[in-house]
Structures are given as structure tokens and as C-alpha cells.
Amino acid sequence: MTNELTFDQINHMQELFSGDRANEIAQTAATTNGIFKASENIRAIDDANFNFSIDIDSHKVTNQNQSGRCWMFACLNVIRFQLEKQYNIENFELSQNYLFFYDKLEKANYFYQNILNTANEPISSRDVQFLINSPQQDGGDWNLIISLVEKYGVVPIYEMNDSNCSITSAELNTMLNRKLRRDAVELRKLVKENATEATIKDYIEKSLSEVYRLLSIALGTPPKTVDFTFRDKDKKYTSYQGLTPQQLYADYIDIDVKDYVGLINVPAENMPFGKVYEVALSGNMVGGTPNRYLNIKMDELKQATIKQLKSGEPVWFGCDVLKHFDRQKGIMSHDLYKFEDLFDIDFSMTKGDRFNYKESLPTHAMVIGGVNLVDDMPTKWKVENSWGEKIGDKGYCVMDDKWMEEFVFEVVVKKAYLTDELKQALETEPVELPFWNPMNPIA
């Protein structure tokens, strides 16, 4: 049944609105100041001080600028934390642009292979439309970093600094996706014409060479060898010359990204707790580490996070950063905005419903570098962002515990900090989720 909206209905709505003085007050506040400022809760701001009982992270924050590389920045912030601790260095930054280059190159090859795998499907199929809608982009997740670091290693930022095209990546993505879509047309045509495997392979190799050229022009050429040099807190200078990026990661930094596992909290009936989930078409390279997550209860997720923080190591996490976040003050508080009071409308949904209906999903990755415990229970968390030093407390944010419960979807911790029951659950066969699931970091 469909009913047309009538003017009688509209007139009645207007009468109801005009008859309530609270609506006039709310209207004045919102039209003058905007919705967020008009509904901001001063008490939540006052409660969001930057004092934590466990505080392990204080190095200079990084800046991803106008790019979607948060997942990469957050992972490299975890790795450099270990490097700084290991060598007694005040601040040492690793090159995000280096891994950005190879992520783009690998995603191009991943796209080509998936175009081949779906070449006999109609252009209107959901799979093909997903692929060509966004052949590649900046997004990713921890497991994609595992693939990159294991294969390409890491380099210091002074060996491959950001370029204008990595700082502001929209132009690069436009050109690269234009190139990939054009190649998709040709690959599907070759399959339709029953071209030989050798012909198709030659076309892909030629195309990848062109992608490499495009990336080198836009981002710079990745170094084959690097010098690892630094001056520690005691002013002692150290230099290791002529290392490959793979050597620097494997032999000089005491961290193994494969030791970590992604834990998610999605309390939805269609995703039961205690199961491992893998998202289709969510990788960044052929043969890379698949995106897998163990779905657990929030109290279990928090306890694993706290254990890692107590051990002196920060925690990578993914969240819906756009919800209840004052960017300038660096405050992430569940009660920061009183939208329901402003509009007199019930906006409440369960976390599971918000996830399934795409009202709330992982949009940003950061690092948890501290927690405040009262009677061994968390009240707030210290967050290292990658948006530069002008927000919050020199780039650090404070996240209250209720915000974490509602808007944090994933943390990455060492397997050693899981309970025996969760370790056993990790070994179970993963349930495949479709590529349109909100946990897909590249959707």
C-alpha cells in the first residue's frame, strides 16, 4: 500500500510544530549554531580530562592529511612504538608512503585477477559492479598491513617521504581507477574472445608496468636499500647501512605482525559470538593474509586490550569515528551531544542494528595508548590519532568507556592475551561474509 503525502498532513505537521515553544527555542539554537553545537553537552566535556592510570604512549603524532591511510598509519605507529622502545629513541617515524605505493600496486593486480575470475559474469552482476565501482582505494585493515610488511618490509620516513599525491590522494585515486577500469574493459573482452592465457598474462604484465610508472610519477620510487640511522635519548648516534626494507623489519625491529589477531564486537543475531569471520573480496593482494575477525563480547575485548596495555604495548583499533566526536577538543564521548533532546526524537538503535543497517560501521583506525582504571574497571581510554597535533591534546584524544562499547568494532592484540577459550575459537573454520558486509574495509 502506498499513500501520497497530502497538504492536509503537512499543514497539521506545521500546526504541531508551531504550537510547541520548545521547538522555537531548538530551532533558534540549531539555525544559529548548527546541530552539533546546539546539542553539545558541557558536562561530558568537563568529564573528558586527559589523565589516565595507565599511560604508555606519548610520542609525536603523525598526520595522514587528506588520505584514507589511517589503518596504515595506526599499524606503523604500533611498530614504531616498539622500535623507539627497543632503541631508546624519542621519536622515529616510518614511511607510510612506501607501503602506500605497494598497497596500490598490489591492489591493481588483485583487481585484475578478480576481473578475470568474474569475466564470464554479466556486467550487471553484483560482483562485477562491486569491483568496478571502486577498483582500488586507500582503505584497509590490520591483516592487509600484515601482507604488506611481510612482503615489502618497512623503511624510515626520511628514505621515502610523503608526496603531494599521498598527502592528498584523491587525484591519484581518480587517475588510477580510470586506468584500472579501462583495463577491465580489455580483460573482459580478451576472455570473451577466447584469448590464450599467455596473451592475457602479457596484457596484465604490461598493465602493471604502466601502473608502476603511474605510481612512481605520483608517489616517488620506493628504495631498494635504506640506511637505518638514529640518535637515542642519550645522544648516542647509531647507523646501520645498506639494509633492505625486509631486513630492517625482520632483523632490526623486535615485532612480528603475525602474532596479532583481529577481535571484533558485533552483537548481531546474524553474527554469533565465538566464531571467526572472513570477508570476501576484501584483500589487497593475491596470496595475502585474508581479513579474518573473531567476534567476541565487549567485556572480553576490553580485557584483552587492557592486558596488552598493562604489558606496555599500545593497541590498534577500528571504530566509527564520526559518531559523538568533537574533533577540535579530541573528545569521544557517548553523551557528548544531546540530539534526542534537541529534536525530541528517539534515535536509539542497538549496536547490532546500527551495524546491519549501516548507521554505524568501522570508518577509522587509531591506536589506544592508555586507559584509566577505577577498581580495575575502565572509565576512559587514551587514543593516538593520525590527524596531526592541532586536535585534542597535541593530537591525542580521550574516549570514554561508553563510547568504546558503542562505537569501537575492532581491536588487534597479541594472541597471548586471549583466554584459552578464545584461542580455541580462533582455530575454527571461518564463516565467509559477503563483500557488502560493513566489516569490509575496502567497500
UniProtKB/TrEMBL annotation:
InterPro entries, per database record: Papain-like_cys_pep_sf (IPR038765), Pept_cys_AS (IPR000169), Peptidase_C1B (IPR004134)
One annotated GO molecular function: cysteine-type aminopeptidase activity
GO cellular component entries: cytoplasm
Highest taxon of source: Bacteria
Keywords: Aminopeptidase, Hydrolase, Protease, Thiol protease
The UniProt record lists the keyword Hydrolase: yes
Any one of the GO BP annotations: response to toxic substance
Catalytic-site annotation from UniProt: 70, 364, 385
Record-stated family: Belongs to the peptidase C1 family.
Name of the protein in question: Aminopeptidase
Organism: Vagococcus bubulae
